[in-house]
Each structure stands twice: as C-alpha cells, then as structure tokens.
Amino acid sequence: MMAQSIQMYRQRLITSLRTLPSARGWLFCLGVSALTLATMAAIGFSTGLYHLTPTQPDLALRMLTVILIPALGEEIPFRAVLTPGPGEGRRPWVEIGVATGLYVLWHVVEALTFLPNAAPVFLRADFLLCCAVLGLGCAVTKRVTGSVWPAVLLHWALVVVWQTWLGGVSALS
User: Fold this and answer.
1) Mean pLDDT of the 133-153 span
2) Could you tell me if 166 and 51 are in contact, meaning their C-beta atoms sit under 8 angstroms apart?
3) Which of 17, 52, 122, 154 is 20 to 30 A from 144, comparing alpha carbons?
4) Measured in whole angstroms, how far is the alpha carbon of residue 13 from the centre of its chain?
5) Computed over its alpha carbons, how large is the radius of gyration of the chain?
6) 102-118 burial string, b = 16+ CB within 10 Å, else e?
7) Which H/E stretch holds residue 18?
8) Residues in Cβ contact with 122 at an 8 Å cutoff, skipping those fewer than 6 apart
9) Would the pLDDT of 172 be above 80?
10) How confident is the model at residue 169 (pLDDT cuts 50, 70, 90)?
11) pLDDT, tens digit, for every residue of 28-55?
C-alpha cells in the first residue's frame, strides 16, 4: 500500500513537470489567475495586508529567488505531488482541500520555526486566507491541465508583485 502511494506521488510529480497545458489550458489558467488575483486583492487591500509602496530594489534578484523559493519549492510538494491531475484520484476535491490546507499550515510552521521575522505577517488571518486562495487557484490549474507550470508562474508572479510593490518586503523585515 505504501509503495503504491509513493509510486502514485512519484508519477504525479513526473507527469506534472513534463506536461504543458494546451492553448485552451493556458486560457483557462489565465482566467483562474485573474480570479485568484482579484480575490486576493480584495482581501489584502480591504484589510491593509497590501498597500502600495515604492518599487523595492533588487527586482532581478527577487525574481530569481522567488522562482526557486517559494514558487518551485512550494508548488512541487503541494501541487505537483499532492494535487491530482485530470482523471486522477477517487476524490480529487478532497485531495485538493487537504493539499491546500497543508499549504496554508506550512506558512504557520515557517513562521514558528525558520522565519520568525515573518510571523507578524504569516500568522495574520488575512494572509492565511490569501494563501488559501492562492493555493486553491494553483490546485485548480494543476487539476485541470495536469501541469504544475501554471501554478509555479502564478505563485511566482503574485509573490514578486507583493514583495516589490505591495509592502511584502517591508512586512517581512
């Protein structure tokens, strides 16, 4: 049983890394991304989590860093491995819910362990709600397309925007 589960997760990972969405899949992902962005903006601006700030320096370095951590570093376990692709899983929405819940919980663990400076932000209910929205948006793109790459791009873009223009860097320092 354990060996079967490991094999299933391994296959999910490989398939999601090798798969690219069709043109129709990319359009779907664009729609999900727009809805995710709009929802997160409504939450973040209404609560003060997001606020316009002058452009933060080191954009190129930030873009490179964010693609590795958190985009790839979080999308691989939570979406590529734990989120089923098209036709996978007996109860895919339960798996998506569990993966999204673990993704949100991961931010709490980070705040309480490796990133104590992030705790004032990472433990905010509005931040965790935005994490849930992002996690769900990324999971839906993976479920429908079978590819982790739209989730990686969405996660990367939103974190770069947050850190560069919406107060994320100053909130984490």
Assistant:
1) 98
2) yes
3) 122
4) 16
5) 16
6) ebbebbeebbeeeeeeb
7) helix 2-18
8) 107, 108, 110, 111, 115, 128
9) no
10) confident
11) 999 999 999 999 999 999 999 999 999 9
